[in-house]
Design a protein that fits this description.
This protein is mainly alpha-helical. The chain is built from four helices and no strands. It has a domain at about 1-50.
Length: about 110
Amino acid sequence: MSGQTLIALITAVTSLVVSVVTAAVSSSFRRRSETELAKLKNQLTEEQSERAARRAYVYDARKRLYLLAPSALFRCPMRSRRSGICAMRANCRWADVFEATDFLLRVTR
């Protein structure tokens, strides 16, 4: 073989090897990124469902609290403001309602 033919053959083989290695590395990176993307999508879906469940739980807990609390508890502050009787407001125990609501919110976080 002549020198030019040998150089052309070496160049062709080197080019072939480089292209095969590039294809293998590219395939490996693509597979890795696809699996990482799938994991991130699953994590996002899980976090969204947890937030939705937490929101539903807080809503139901507040609804239960408002249904279980006596209606006088809600009417009492308005009456006490109109009549000016501070003792009536103290007996309403609004602090208990707010404390229970805060407790429910802390539990669900």
